[in-house]
Write a structure and sequence with these properties.
Layout (H helix, E strand, L loop, with lengths): L19 E8 L4 E3 H5 L6 H8 L3 E3 L7 H16 L8 E5 L10 H9 L5 E5 L5 H14 L6 E8 L9 H4 L4 E9 L7 E8 L7 E2 L11 H5 L6 E2 L1 H22 L9 E4 L4 H11 L10 H4 L6 H11 L8 E8 L3 E8 L1
Parallel strand pairs: 4-5, 4-6, 11-12
Antiparallel strand pairs: 1-7, 2-3, 6-7, 8-13, 9-10, 12-13
Helix pairs in contact: 3-4, 8-9
Bound molecules: coenzyme A (COA).
The site of coenzyme A (COA) has 21 residues, from α2, α6, α8 and β12.
C-alpha cells in the first residue's frame, strides 16, 4: 500500500483488515414531481424553490412501492458491480427513517427480497446521516474479520411522512435508495476514517411528533397532522453548515490531508445553499463538489449513496482517488468519511 497519506486505522500497529466499497448502486422511482406540480398543491413557485434550495424536481414512489422495494433494487445493482451473490452476504444494514413498518426491521424484509438467507439484518436510524453511520458500523465487522461481505443501504420513502399541505417542508424531500457492498480489497486503504456525531439537545429542530411510544396513533394525532415531519428550517440550515464543516475538517485532520487532495466531495443533498457554504468554508472548488439535488431533492439516508453511485457512473471518481462524504441530519446527527476509492 502507498503511504501518500496517514491511515488513522493503522495506529498502534493495528492488524485489522481494510474495508472498501466494492460495489455501489442506486434506484429512484419513475414518477417525477416537478416544482410546477407543487405550485398546484401549495402556495409556492418554481422560482422560490430553485433560488432557496436548488431543487427542480424529486421522485415519488408508487403507492405499492415501499422502502424495502427501493432498497432491494439498489442492493441488486451494488451486488452486480461487486460480483457478489446473495448467499455471500453476511449482514444487511438498512439506514432509514421511513421503514416499511415500525417493526420488523426493513433490513429483514430486504434480506428476504434479495434472498440473502445467511445474513443477519438490522435497521439503523440516524436520519440523513444514516449512510455514513452504516459504512462505519459495517466497516467494523470487516476490519475485525467478523464478516467478509456487508451490505449497507440508505433507503427512504419520505413522501409517506411529508405533509403535502406544508410548503415549508414538502418542496424539499423525495424518495430513493442507494446501496454499497463492503469487503476487504487487497492493497487498498478503502474507508480511511469516519467521523460520527450527534446532539440530542436539538432533537426538536427536525422530527416527526407522533407514531412512536410518546404519541401513539389516535384519531386526534392524525387530525392534528402529527404523523408528518416537522422542521425549523433556518435553525436546521445553520446547524447543517456548521456541523458538516467541522466533521469534514476533523476527517481531513485525522488523515493529514489537505482539501486539494480530495478528488470529489459528496455532500448530503439537502439544499444547494448549504452545499455551496460547506464547499466554500472547506476551500473546495466547485469542480470538486458533486451535486445532483436538482433532480431528487433531499432523500435523507439515500442521498449520499445515490450521489456516490452517480459520481462513479459519471467517471468523476477513479480507483485510487480520495473522496470525502459529508452528511447532516435529524437528531441532530452528522458525519464525514474519507475513502480511497
Ligand atoms: C427551508 C429553507 C429552504 C427555507 O429557506 P429560508 O431562506 O430559510 O427561508 P425562510 O425560512 O426565511 O422563509 C422565508 C419566507 O418564505 C416562505 N416560504 C417557506 N417555504 C416556502 C415555499 N415553499 N414557497 C414559498 N415561500 C415559502 C416562508 O413562509 C417565509 O415567509 P415569511 O417571511 O412571510 O414568514 C431553508 O431554511 C433550509 O433549507 N433549511 C434547511 C432544511 C434542510 O436541509 N433540512 C434537512 C436537513 S437534513
Amino acid at each position: 500500500m502507498s503511504s501518500k497519506f496517514k491511515n488513522p486505522r493503522a495506529r498502534f500497529n493495528f492488524q485489522g483488515r481494510t474495508c472498501s466499497i466494492t460495489g455501489i448502486g442506486s434506484y429512484v422511482p419513475a414518477k417525477i414531481l416537478a416544482n410546477a406540480d407543487l405550485e398546484k398543491m401549495v402556495d409556492t413557485s418554481d422560482e422560490w424553490i430553485v433560488t432557496r434550495t436548488g431543487i427542480k424536481e424529486r421522485r415519488i414512489s408508487a403507492k405499492d412501492e415501499f422502502t424495502s422495494d427501493m432498497a432491494a433494487k439498489a442492493a441488486h445493482r451494488a451486488m452486480k458491480m461487486a460480483g457478489v451473490t446473495a448467499s455471500q452476504i453476511d449482514l444487511v444494514i438498512v439506514a432509514t427513517i421511513t421503514p416499511d413498518m415500525p417493526f420488523p426491521a426493513t433490513a429483514c424484509v430486504v434480506q428476504q427480497k434479495i434472498g440473502a438467507k445467511r445474513a443477519a439484518a438490522f435497521d439503523l436510524e440516524a436520519a440523513c446521516s444514516g449512510f455514513i453511520y452504516g459504512l462505519e458500523i459495517g466497516q467494523q465487522f470487516i476490519m475485525s474479520r467478523t464478516y467478509d461481505t456487508v451490505l449497507v443501504i440508505g433507503a427512504e420513502k419520505l413522501s409517506s411522512i411529508t405533509d403535502w399541505q406544508d410548503r415549508n417542508t414538502c418542496v424539499l424531500f423525495g424518495d430513493g435508495s442507494g446501496a454499497a457492498i463492503l469487503q476487504n480489497r487487497e492493497n487498498s486503504h478503502g474507508l480511511l476514517t469516519a467521523v460520527m456525531g450527534a446532539d440530542g439537545d436539538k432533537a426538536d429542530l427536525l422530527f416527526m411528533p407522533a407514531g412512536g411510544s410518546r404519541c401513539p396513533a389516535t384519531r386526534e394525532s392524525v387530525d392534528a397532522r402529527l404523523h408528518f415531519l416537522r422542521m425549523s428550517g433556518k435553525e436546521t440550515f445553520k446547524n447543517a453548515v456548521q456541523a458538516m464543516c467541522s466533521a469534514a475538517q476533523e476527517a481531513l485532520r485525522r488523515c493529514e490531508l489537505d482539501i486539494t487532495r480530495i478528488k470529489c466531495v459528496i455532500p448530503h443533498q439537502a439544499n444547494r445553499r448549504i452545499i455551496d457554504a460547506v464547499g466554500e468554508r472547506l476551500g473546495a472548488t466547485p469542480e470538486q463538489m458533486f451535486v445532483n439535488l436538482e433532480k431528487y431533492g433531499n432523500t435523507s439516508a439515500a442521498s449520499v449513496a445515490i450521489a456516490l453511485d452517480e459520481a462513479v457512473a459519471a467517471g468523476r471518481i477513479q480507483r485510487g482517488d480520495l473522496i470525502l462524504l459529508v452528511v447532516f441530519g435529524a437528531g441532530l446527527t452528522w458525519g464525514a468519511a474519507i475513502i480511497e476509492w
